[in-house]
Specification:
heterotrimer; A: 305 residues; mainly alpha; 0% strand; disordered C terminus; C: 305 residues; flat
């Protein structure tokens, strides 16, 4: 084996390493961090509730029972067995609604992440790689988006489409993509000048191939981190829209709806608002911790947030 | 260098924050000041533009009308001391002598004429135009007499224009329309002292008020939009009177250390209308009647409203209205009968419908809709509740776009059947989704019928038809809930108006 | 540097113009103000008259031209609901929101930065865990839930603080803490992680090796270098605070611009909505400009494109 061969092998290995990020190291770090595992557990619990809701929930979340209205949680005086966390003003079981609410929050949050990331990453890739005028336009649109009040946007979209789960996803998704663009663009700009990209260009690879094979995989770790935080933001955003009366229709159990309705009862039937509030808080905390853990795992130098 | 720039920036923010907040005088919560909190601030202090209750409550203290309503809806003198009908189309009002506006201008018939004509002026865009639309002309034979000449003989006189508040013609003409929004000039018991929009409005007693001295010398209006905050503010003593207490807080307010609950039978009803002017199962009268039997309204009133409501199951008119027929039968809860009627209507299996509802516009509106949907489930109707925010909702209502059923509330402070029947049951009106040529004519005729006995009979006939045809799911009449500090003596009114000169300190 | 400044200014103007166009379009898509402004008894003819009076029946392009022509001069027309000039109403309310936002930010800065510094210095101790826990919870709690809890605890139960409207400093406390909670939590996290980053770097270790005292090193070297991302976040958060004030202002009946905007949007009071959106966008854009310039002063490399 000549020195040349060894050098060639090393270059190959390095290029492989650049193509496949430090995934295995990342995974090992991740599993060792307790906080990140906690976050992962919360998200898993969320998904379990979302997928297996019909089997997990003790009652049907939409069935009303005016004779069992406003019952307190099981450990308080005046409660009825079977209603673990109490009932709301129409007699619907709170625990069941929280479990189904997890389903809605997951659907909304993951859809938002998918939509937002696809749009945001694509535009970020284009803006960063192509640069110039296109870059300016994309960034200005992002700025305009950021300066625009989301309430107005929500009312307008709802006025045109009508309120539903899809509307919420659309509204939150529209405000989500901007979070990706800036960072992806910055990374693409720096990656653009790296040797392996230069090499690919010299060899004559097409732009698409360069973007998908060389640049995108390196950007994915940041994107994953941003996506995790966007997940959390989507859950909170849904709650805020419900507060303003712009959320999903009231017949759909959602944490935001429950919190919005429950706020009027916080000093009488406090359980109606407190438990969904806790659900939101714990989920968001878990997701945030997961995001932190992912970021630390992928690259400790990525403290851009 | 960097540090200096940074410190500079932080210093700016600090100075900005502190200086804006530092010097501000709190409004004193003293014994002489009454604080009232509604859910919204007034839009304007000109009494001629808007008809919205929170605004009316504020500027009504500054202005008077020719007549007023006593708490039972009976007409009593205000700026007019007496009135009589002198011909089929002429009503004469004798005006009170010696009344002055708070700047000293004397009150005369010229002010009344100016006020009516201003409201009627289409360029002025008043929301109160329908109150004087029947007046063709205002005659002022002398400074203390006013004659309203109506287009046709009308049974709505003399009461319909009762709440038109009279403005100072000379002052208005001198300053123009826009000035009036912030600078009211009236004859009423109170005068404006200061107004910080959306925060508070202070008014003080008018020393030259023709009605004598009032018990409360200073009133502060402090709007609190969020109902939980409003109740909390009452409980801490920050405010003395609050409107629209949510039903679930009623007991808390009634039993509070500092507070008591004031109730009044409202002139507002809540209902679910069927859009019979669009195709669908709701066009079938058996279906509509079935729905009326399928819903247990007393149970809904008990649980959702906490008992603070009065089921109204025989028609759209509350019992104390002129034109109400006490002999009408009522719908009652009978799910078996409902199922039979559904079969008659051709419904043989589960049916999916949409129930449209506003959200947060009326007390518990969304919750009532959901409760109704829950009960319809029992008879095999899957009703999905769809809410929208109010602007879109009312737009769709006005275009008759909501189908097959939609929830709505209606407040009628004239206490007269016409104020409900004409807009809601006349075929072509924007917010009516039912009507027949016969009832259209009957309603129009009744409006002008001057003989009270015949009028009552006319309305009885109309209500009979409405009962049979069931264009609504008849629900209930609200009970208005007010929170009052124990140091205040005040009885709330049915027309949602707060008349401050009738408020005093409790002994 | 000058070229950079000019470029940023131009970008800012573009963004402002974009926002103005966007708000106009969205408003006109979302509903007819006649239906909300007129009483429900209004007949079809009344609605037609109203539209004609306000020019809503003209072609959209004509309406926009008219609007743009006046907007550039700062004239947004009169509020449909109140009758007063729209921009005047917005400006009237601005100081109240500014007071709230600045105070919240001040609270955040004064609490979060020291807390973050201490947590980073005393890593893995109880203090660190407490700070991290608080920052997690603070970023997860929905604003209005927090606000109402404060009202119930400090206003009603304990009776310590007033809960409605503006007044002296005592009226400011609860809204300020409610609004500032999220930002405080976020800043705590950023400060801590920023400090940790810098602490690991070579020149800090050099300074320690040279024998400088711990405190000296912490404040003079570490903090100064960590401050840059912190300042960036502060600038961005001010924008978030301005828009997040909407919910806080509603709960505490604070007479600010957020509350005005939401009410105007529900009323379809076009002139007021347009005035508020453009005004807040202008402030947002202006603040970003300042932050960018600060950034450029600290790190001139940013100005090269």
């Amino acid at each position: 084996m000549t020195t040349l061969d060894l050098t060639a092998k090393r270059i190959e290995a390095e290029e492989e390493a650049a193509f496949v990020p430090r995934r295995y190291q990342a995974l090992r770090y991740f599993v060792r961090s307790r906080a990140a595992m906690f976050g992962g557990a919360i998200v898993t619990l969320l998904l379990v509730c979302a997928i297996f809701a019909p089997w997990l929930a003790p009652h049907d979340p939409t069935v009303q029972n005016l004779n069992a209205a406003s019952l307190p949680p099981i450990w308080l005086h005046g409660s009825q067995s079977g209603y673990w966390l109490g009932t709301d003003e129409l007699g619907r079981d709170i625990l069941a609604r929280i479990i189904y609410g997890a389903r809605l929050s997951s659907i909304v949050a993951f859809s938002v992440v998918v939509i937002g990331s696809i749009i945001g990453v694509s535009l970020g890739l284009i803006a960063g790689y192509v640069g110039g005028f296109v870059d300016d336009i994309i960034m200005r649109i992002a700025d305009i988006q950021l300066a625009f009040p989301y309430v107005l946007l929500a009312i307008a979209v709802i006025g045109v489409i009508g309120a539903s789960v899809y509307t919420i996803i659309a509204v939150i998704g529209i405000t989500s993509w901007v979070q990706y663009v800036r960072i992806v663009r910055a990374e693409v700009i720096s990656l653009r000048e790296r040797e392996f990209v230069q090499a690919a260009r010299a060899v004559g690879d097409s732009v698409t191939r360069i973007i998908f094979r060389h640049i995108l995989p390196n950007v994915m770790s940041s994107v994953t981190v941003i996506a995790t935080f966007e997940l959390a933001r989507a859950i909170i955003f849904e709650a805020a829209l419900s507060f303003l009366g712009l959320g999903v229709p009231p017949s759909v159990p959602s944490w935001g709806n429950m919190l919005a309705e429950g706020r009027q009862y916080l000093d009488t039937s406090w359980w109606m608002g407190t438990f969904p509030g806790l659900a939101i808080m714990i989920t968001v905390m878990g997701v945030n911790v997961l995001g932190d853990g992912l970021r630390d795992a992928f690259d400790p130098g990525l403290r851009t947030q | 260098m960097r540090r200096r720039v940074l410190t500079f920036l932080l210093a700016i923010m600090f100075i900005g924050g502190v200086s804006l907040g530092a010097v501000r005088l709190a409004t004193a919560q003293s014994n002489d000041v009454l604080t009232i909190s509604q859910g919204a601030d007034t839009d304007t202090l000109s009494p001629l533009t808007t008809a919205v209750t929170p605004s009316s409550n504020v500027f009504n203290q500054i202005f008077d009308g020719l007549c007023a309503h006593d708490p039972n809806g009976k007409l009593v003198p205000a700026l007019a001391t007496s009135w009589k009908q002198i011909s089929a189309t002429k009503w004469q009002f004798n005006l009170r002598h010696g009344v002055k506006f708070s700047n000293g201008d004397p009150f005369t018939s010229a002010d009344v004429k100016f006020t009516v004509e201003k409201v009627q002026d289409p360029a002025f865009k008043s929301q109160k135009a329908d109150r004087v639309s029947m007046i063709a002309q205002v005659l002022t034979p002398n400074p203390y007499t006013v004659i309203y000449v109506t287009k046709k003989p009308s049974a709505l006189m003399p009461g319909r224009p009762y709440d038109l508040r009279i403005v100072d013609a000379k002052y208005w003409q001198a300053h123009g329309d826009a000035y009036e929004v912030d600078h009211p000039m009236g004859t009423g018991p109170y005068m404006l002292k200061e107004w910080k929009k959306d925060d508070h409005l202070t008014m003080v007693a008018n020393p030259n008020y023709w009605g004598g001295n009032v018990a409360i010398k200073t009133i502060v209006w402090r709007p609190i939009p969020e109902s939980a905050s409003r109740v909390a503010a009452l409980q801490t003593g920050e405010t003395d009177i609050i409107t629209n207490v949510p039903p679930q807080n009623a007991d808390q307010v009634a039993n509070g250390k500092l507070t008591k609950l004031g109730t009044a039978k409202s002139d507002r009803v809540l209902f679910i209308a069927f859009n019979t002017q669009k195709p669908g199962i709701q066009d079938n009268v058996a279906f509509r009647q079935a729905i009326n039997y399928a819903v247990n309204v007393p149970a809904i009133v008990k649980t959702v409203l906490g008992g603070h409501g009065f089921p109204l199951r025989n028609g759209p008119l509350p019992p104390n209205f002129v034109g109400y027929d006490p002999k009408l039968p009522s719908y009652h809860y009978d799910p078996e009968k409902a199922k039979d009627l559904l079969k008659q209507a051709g419904v043989n299996g589960p049916l999916n419908v949409v129930l449209n509802s506003p959200s947060g516009r009326y007390n518990m509106d969304k919750e009532v809709a959901q409760a109704v949907a829950g009960q319809l489930q029992v008879v095999g109707i899957n009703a999905t509740v769809q809410t929208q925010e109010w602007t879109n909702y009312v737009g769709q209502v006005s275009h008759k776009a909501l189908t097959p059923m939609y929830e709505l509330g209606w407040g009628n402070d004239t206490f007269d059947a016409d104020g409900t029947l004409t807009p809601l049951f006349t075929t072509d009106y924007p917010i009516s989704t039912w009507g027949t040529p016969e009832t259209d004519k009957e309603i129009a005729d009744a409006r002008y019928e001057l003989d009270p006995k015949k009028r009552a009979a006319d309305y009885a006939k109309i209500q009979e038809t409405i009962f049979q045809q069931a264009p609504w799911l008849f629900l209930f009449e609200y009970e208005d809930l007010y929170g009052i500090n124990k140091r205040v003596a005040w009885q709330p009114r049915s027309d949602e108006l707060i008349v401050c000169k009738d408020i005093s300190w409790a002994k | 540097m000058v070229a950079y400044l000019v470029r940023r200014l131009f970008g800012a103007v573009v963004v402002l113009a974009g926002v103005t166009v966007a708000v106009f379009l969205i408003l006109h898509l979302s509903g007819d103000p006649a239906l909300i402004m007129l009483p429900p008894e209004a007949s079809k003819q009344d609605i037609v008259n109203f539209d004609h009076e306000y020019g809503f029946d003209r072609p959209v392009l004509v309406q926009f031209g008219d609007f743009a022509w006046h907007a550039v001069r700062g004239d947004f027309g009169n509020s449909i609901r109140h009758g007063d000039p729209a921009m005047g109403l917005a400006l009237e309310r601005l100081p109240a929101t500014a007071e709230l936002a600045f105070s919240a930010l001040l609270l955040a800065v004064l609490v979060a930065i020291p807390a973050g510094v201490i947590a980073s210095v005393k890593r893995e101790t109880t203090v660190d865990y407490v700070v991290r826990a608080i920052s997690l919870v603070g970023q997860a709690a929905p604003v209005y839930w927090l606000g109402i809890m404060f009202i119930l605890i400090f206003g009603v139960s304990l009776g310590w603080l007033p809960i409605a409207g503006m007044g002296g400093i005592s009226h400011l406390i609860l809204p300020m803490v409610t609004l500032g909670a999220f930002t405080t939590a976020k800043l705590m996290r950023i400060t801590r992680s920023g400090m940790l980053d810098v602490m690991r770097s070579d020149y800090v270790r050099t300074a320690l090796a040279k024998g400088l005292s711990s405190l000296n090193v912490t404040v003079r070297h570490t903090l100064r270098n960590a401050i840059l991302p912190i300042v960036t976040v502060i600038g961005l958060e001010l924008g978030t605070l301005l828009s997040g004030a909407v919910i806080t202002e509603t709960i505490f009946s604070w007479p600010g611009i957020g509350r005005l905007a939401v009410q105007a949007i529900y009323d379809r009071d076009y002139p007021v909505v347009e005035a508020v959106v453009v005004l807040t966008a202008a402030i947002f854009v202006g603040l970003n400009l300042i932050v960018d310039l600060t950034y450029a002063v600290f790190d001139p490399r940013v100005t090269y494109k």
